[in-house]
Amino acid sequence: MKLASLKNGTRDGRLVVVSKDLTRYTDASFLVPNLQAALDDWRRIAPHLEALAESLDHGSVPSERFHEHDAHSPLPRAYQWADGSAYVNHVELVRKARGAELPESFWTDPLMYQGAPIPSSVRAIPS
Predict the structure, then answer these.
(1) For the chain, which residues score pLDDT lower than 70?
(2) Largest CA distance in the chain
(3) Does residue 40 sit in helix, strand or coil?
(4) For residue 117, what is the enclosing H or E element?
(5) How far apart are CA 30 and CA 15, in angstroms?
(6) Neighbour count for residue 33 (Cβ, 10 Å)
(7) CB distance 5 to 15 below 8 Å
(8) What is the pLDDT of residues 72-82, one digit of tens each?
(9) What is d(CA 115, CA 110) in angstroms, rounded to the nearest whole number?
(10) Cα–Cα distance between 50 and 17 in angstroms, integer?
């Protein structure tokens, strides 16, 4: 099952199910308005989205051509994220710049970066 958020003038976009070959989509907003709402109620919604995806792939529901340029970020207002792409060399340099030693375990243990979006109300700080 492939899900996408399409731009529709709202902050979170509109949830659609995309075909396996990424050429067609069908509206899923009658089930939930957006991906965040689907994730919030995943146990109940997932089976319906799976059924819709199967119907789309069999051509038994209305569909439209999928254009990736119409897609929104999947979760434009994600509450947080975890990124496992921290580079030890970079961490070592940053710690060295502030006079901190790099623990030996950083070379063998996975590094994670956790972040959170900045609300639009605090992005522009008046001078």
Answers:
(1) 85, 117-127
(2) 63
(3) helix
(4) none
(5) 9
(6) 16
(7) yes
(8) 888 877 777 77
(9) 16
(10) 9
